[in-house]
Specification:
With about 250 residues, the chain is α/β, with parallel strands linked by helices. The protein has 5 helices and 8 strands. The strands form 2 sheets. The protein has a 4-stranded mixed beta sheet with strand order 1-2-3-4. Strands 6-5-8-7 form a 4-stranded antiparallel beta sheet, covered by helices on one side. β3, α3 and β4 form a beta-alpha-beta unit. α4 runs antiparallel to α5. The longest helix is centred in the first third of the chain and has 21 residues. The radius of gyration is 20 Å and the shape is globular. The two termini are about 30 Å apart. About 5% of the residues have low confidence.
C-alpha cells in the first residue's frame, strides 16, 4: 500500500497536518485557491532555493463571518527554511509584492520565515541536494552515499533513496538506490518524511525519491507546526525491531 502512496499524504491527520489550510465556499473557489497556492510555492522555491526551504504552509483567512468588515482578508505564508538569514526585510517586501500579484489586491500578504533546526531531517532539502549534485555531474552513487552519511549523522533512524532514469548517460533507463537504518513505510505513528525531486540533465530527467525516518510519535500534535514559532524536533523512540512470535 505505502509503496504506491505518498508517505506524507498517508499520514495527514495522524502525525502530519495539511500544508494549505483554508475554507472555500464553492468548487470554483477551491480550484482557484489550489492553483494560487501551487504558484506561490513554485515562485518561492525557485527564487529562494539557496535558503534551503523545507516546506511552505499557506493559511487563508476571510472576513465573511467577522463583525469588523473593515478587516481585509489575509493570507499567511509560513516558510520553513534552514538559511533564515537570506529572508531579510527587503527580501520579504519584494517577495510579498510578487505574491500580491498572484493572489490579488483584496488579500493582505503576510510572509513569515521560520527557522528549521536540522535541514538534514528534511527529505526535500536532501533530495534537492542529490538532484543538484547529479546535474553538476557528480557520480550518482557518490551523491547518494554522501546524502545518507549526512542524514544518519543527524541522528535519524533510517533513510532510503532511489534514483531512476538514464544514469550516467546509459541508453536504457535504470533504477538504483541505497537504504540505511530502518524505514517502516506502513507504520502510521512513524514520523516519516518523503520528497520527490527531479534532476534535469542533458540525457534527460533523473528522478530522486527519498524517505527519512525521524522516529515514532506517541503523542498527538507534536508535528503540527501551526503557529509561526521556531521548529523543534519531535520526540522519538528508537525502533526495537519486529516483535518475536511465541507463547506468552
Amino acid at each position: 500500500m505505502s509503496q504506491k502512496t505518498n508517505s506524507n499524504g498517508l499520514r495527514i491527520g495522524i502525525n502530519k497536518n495539511w500544508n494549505s489550510r483554508w475554507y472555500a465556499s464553492n468548487g470554483k473557489e477551491v480550484g482557484n485557491f489550489m492553483v494560487s497556492d501551487e504558484k506561490i510555492r513554485k515562485y518561492l522555491i525557485k527564487a529562494y532555493d539557496n535558503a534551503q526551504i523545507v516546506k511552505i504552509e499557506i493559511e487563508r483567512k476571510d472576513n465573511k463571518n467577522s463583525f469588523d468588515k473593515a478587516v481585509p482578508p489575509s493570507i499567511d505564508i509560513l516558510v520553513y527554511c534552514g538559511q533564515i538569514g537570506l529572508f531579510g526585510e527587503d527580501v520579504i517586501t519584494v517577495a510579498s509584492k510578487e505574491i500580491q500579484k498572484n493572489v490579488g489586491r483584496k488579500y493582505k500578504v503576510n510572509l513569515k520565515p521560520i527557522a528549521y533546526d536540522n535541514v538534514y531531517w528534511s527529505a526535500r532539502v536532501v533530495a534537492r541536494k542529490i538532484a543538484d549534485d547529479i546535474v553538476n555531474r557528480v557520480p550518482y552513487r557518490m551523491a547518494m552515499k554522501n546524502a545518507l552519511k549526512n542524514v544518519m549523522a543527524s541522528k535519524a533512524l533510517g533513510v532510503r533513496v532511489i534514483v531512476s532514469g538514464r544514469l550516467n548517460g546509459a541508453d536504457m533507463a535504470a533504477t538504483a538506490g541505497y537504504t540505511e537504518g530502518t524505514v517502516p513505510l506502513s507504520t502510521f505513528r512513524c514520523d516519516l518524511d518523503y520528497a520527490h525531486e527531479c534532476a534535469q540533465t542533458l540525457m534527460g530527467i533523473i528522478g530522486v525519491k527519498l524517505w527519512i525516518n525521524r522516529g515514532e510519535i506517541f503523542k498527538k500534535g507534536l508535528n503540527n507546526q501551526n503557529k509561526p514559532e521556531k521548529f523543534t524536533l519531535p520526540e522519538r523512540k528508537k525502533w526495537a525491531g519486529p516483535s518475536k512470535g511465541g507463547k506468552k
